[in-house]
Amino acid sequence: MTVTRAPAETLSVLDRSNSYIGKTVPRPNLDRLLQGRGQYVSDLELPRMAHVVFLRSPYAHARIVAIDADAARRMSGVIAIVTGRELEAVITPWVGVLSHLKGLKSAPQHAIAVDRACWQGEAVAAIVATSRAAAEDAMEHVVVDYEELETVTDMRTALDPATPVIHSALGDNLAFERTLNAGDVDQALSDSEVVEADFVFGRHTGVTLEPRAVVADWNAAEARLTIYQGTQAPHMVQNIAALHLGLREAQVRVVCKDVGGSFGIKVHIYADEMATYALSKLLRRPIKFVADRVESFNTDIHARDHRCRGRIGVKPDGTITAFEIDDLTGIGPYSMYPRTSAIEANQVVNLVGGPYVTANYRARARVVFQNKNVMCQYRAVGHPIACSVTEGLVDLAAAKIGMDPVEIRRRNLIPDDAYPCASPSGMKFEQLSHHASLAKLLQMMDYDALRAEQAALRARNIHRGIGIASFIEVTNPSAAFYGVGGAKISSQDGVAVRLDAQGSVICQTSITEQGQGSESLTAQIVGSVLGVSMDRVRVTLGDTDNTPYGGGTWASRGAGIGGEAALQAAKALRQNILDVAAAILQSTPAGLDIVNNSIVNAVDGAPRIELNELARIVYFRPDTLPPGVQPELMATRHFVPRQYPFAFTNGVQASWLEVDTETGFVTLLKHWVVEDCGTIINPQLVDEQIRGGVVQGLGAALFEKCIYDERGQLTNANMADYLVPMSGEMPDIEIGHVVSPTQETELGAKGAGEAGTAGAAAAVANAVNDALRPFGATITEIPLTPQVILTALGRI
Amino acid sequence: MSAPVSVSLLVNGEPIDAFVLPRLNLADFLRENLRLTGTHVGCEHGVCGACTVRLDGEIVRSCLMLAVQAQGASVETIEGLSDSGEIADLQAAFRERNALQCGYCTPGMLMTAQDLLKQMPVPDRQAIREHLSGNYCRCTGYQAIVDAVEATAKTRAGRPA
Asked: Cα(A234)–Cα(A253) distance, rounded to whole angstroms?
């Protein structure tokens, strides 16, 4: 990793000696996971626990005429078989809309289908038994009489008058539409060379290695529901479960220990999870649901199924005059709850053209219903679409006027000294660094040498390509994301820090851990600010009974929002500790400091009293303190961004690859990323977030696609047929940073979790087109399978 | 589903005698009967590698084997390899390099990496990538894992025999 950073003008609490900020330190508690001692929900067993499996509709759209479970009910181990109608008595349906997405509509969705199934995989009955195997045995004997209904599968015809309307009460299949018109696009295009293309994005999904899992434990004697769930947002789950089960939030506790991958898949409320909560209440015992892999493919949210027509205007000197898009996406039969399925299309409108100065921008996005699995927010929501369309168009424009792809970007990226400024879609940018990032990228990849190598290899009929993609990323979202639309999804986070009786620190945070390093960054910040070594900081997260209230970890918000709350809480505790120390030592708080677990003189660093001794006095001999001194060795602070709705970050990626024009196979040779996420708390963790994100984007670029047939059947719902990136095909990824801290927080951190995914596919697609330029072929579709490439080459 | 049958095997060196349904797979037997939950289940059809264990010295996918097929065999899981200290250096290298995020693939990844390092003392990066290519990790992008395995191989090679 290489970092470019302007020298700080003043020292902050983060620059203290022995600071962990900006240092690579191993994450705490990794040994638990390394030794197979993690506590994933799928590992959990409780007394009297029963297992639920769901009988799922084999049809994409069907009326449920009758369900006969009599034979199944008599089978060994069966506890209950419950239909949607029966479960309605316990849990109410929901509608996934937000008021700030004007016009967004959806239909009531039930925990288990009532009367009608709307996608292949929607649950139509729950079978509860003493073991999962017994439940699956019984499921074979539940007979459902279906009347197959006409399906709506192709998003392109979903709005045609001849197409059936999935939810007749809604009037049509249009869930949401947004238009935007900034500047004068028609005038700009009339004066320019215009290039246009249809960009097609395959529907893909998250494939978390641990499937979704939940254990719901309704204790009737306590009138309290404990939900053990692998979730990114425990307080959101608490709120939703309480709302639909008719409970107060205080009656619901959500516990989230280790989570086997999330990436946005586990930030939603799924119908089968709601059914599991309800079944526990109905049956008054713990119920466990663990999705199998087929269920994961059929019910974990899908994402990115977009078709986007894009146009760009360009002058001969390389000036980009306008962007225009018409985006269409199909989201399945329901808008997902509670975050809705309109956010991705909305983001596409917000983000297209975002890195560039171009003021003329027109956009339309339409979101339609169809009889396929639901779509919703997955890592980098909307960004890969917006980035691929924007960067694909920029490369097409460059080719049109015969300009190098780097040069056209240099001429149009927003200058690094132009901030603060806003995009045509109204996005506010505090401080970005497109040009510094591009310059650094070119240096890292040795762009000119690669171009020379490419030319030399072409002479030998070896076709390599270079693809560049600049991007912006939404991080640290304020209430503008969900709260203003009426969703009870907190945009603030809280951290409580306390000194224990042996001078160690216990820290409770509302952000959550799915492997990103939330625990580590919290401990690093708290340890640095307090002057306590990290091995004395213990972090608790993922428990609504034992953490402050907050949003959790999603949308690249953990470090920027939860980290700032940790910093402010630690500062408050530090002051409280120094107040007590001053009283004990007959000094002043300003005359003292905390360094390496001890109170020292601020001036000369001379040790005065160790923290464990201070804690001993406070907790066990308060009688020896001066009169009137009441120590408070616990402090809590919350934080939410108010100045900017989002802390935008930026970066640029490059791909170097080879296309075999005989077989259509792509070999990824190298990938580079330069990213600016502001203050870097732990360089290693940031880099690994980016690498993992890039590889998820590379999967989308080359392999991943949920293939539906015309009847709405998912034909590759297994890991043998749905391809994911494996180690053999992935390149090494080199990462550099430019550091532009946000001034909105003392910490200065912005998010980094989604940057890799945002631009990887765009870089690869541009590189493939660069490699194929001698053949006159241009591809604007992902995944770039051999079939797609050979078709573009006219070989098949 | 026919009646339970008896099976006797060694698990992490301990003799185990059990009655199991013939259809019970080895992964479920380890997790549910023996509570060895470090062996993870990801795909249940032999693709993801999360359930990798060692059977008589060879790595196998425990989701693709029946428990009764392990009759008379010696099975080693991540708990066994951890407690014996056999892979302590590899685990330390994973920790230093942050070669795991959510940790769900990690036990299987460690099993597979140790298998490679026993077969090939100093594999190059491509050989490491090839050998691990049956173990799916969604979090890391693999580079950190390759780095950790490579570093362990070099350290072991430099250690006197």
From this structure: 9
Determine which of A297, A696, A726 to mutate to test the interface with B (most B C-beta atoms within 10 Å): A726
CA B31 from chain center: how many Å? 13
Residues of B in Cβ contact (< 8 Å) with A133? 21, 23
Strand partners, B99: none
Q: Do A209 and B106 touch (CB under 8 A)?
A: no
Give the domains, in start order, of chain A with CATH numbers: 12-38+492-639 (3.30.365.10), 41-149+211-259+265-299 (3.90.1170.50), 382-476+645-792 (3.30.365.10)
The minimal CB distance from B96 to the residues A26, A40, A732 is found for: A26
Q: What is the pLDDT of residue B159?
A: 76
* pLDDT 10s digits, A616-634: 999 999 999 999 999 999 9
d(CA A577, CA A584): 11
The Cβ-side half-sphere exposure at A483, using a 13 Å CA radius, reads 13
Q: How far apart, in Å, do the first and last CA atoms of chain A sit?
A: 43
Which ipTM did the prediction report? 0.97
**Tokens at residue A651, please?**
């970066």
pLDDT in tens, B113-158: 999 999 999 999 999 999 999 999 999 999 999 999 999 999 999 8
A208 within 8 A of A263, measured Cβ to Cβ:
yes
- State the nearest Cα–Cα gap between B71 and chain A, in angstroms: 22
pTM: 0.97
DSSP bridge partners of A129: A51, A78
Q: Which residues of A touch B134 (CB under 8 A)?
A: 726
pLDDT digits (tens, 9 = 90+) for B16-28: 999 999 999 999 9
Domain covering B87-156: architecture: Orthogonal Bundle (1.10)
pLDDT digits (tens, 9 = 90+) for A407-417: 999 999 999 99
* pLDDT tens digits, A762-777: 999 999 999 999 999 9
**A483: DSSP letter:** G
CA-based nearest residue in chain A for residue B140: A692
A26/B contact by beta carbon, under 8 A = yes
Peptide bond into A741 cis (omega under 30): no
Q: Identify the bridge partners of residue A50 per DSSP, sorted by sequence position.
A: A287
DSSP code for B25: B
Chain B CA closest to residue A683 = B98
Interface of A with B in 657-716 (CB under 8 A): 684-685, 688, 691-696
A256 part of contact set with chain B, CB < 8 Å: no
What fold, for B5-81? Ubiquitin-like (UB roll) (3.10.20)
Work out the number of other CB atoms within 10 angstroms of the CB of residue A369: 28
Residue B146 to chain A, least CA–CA distance (Å): 8
Q: With CA atoms as reference, report the closest residue to A764 among A725, A707, A708, A723.
A: A725
* Structural domain spans, chain B: 5-81, 87-156
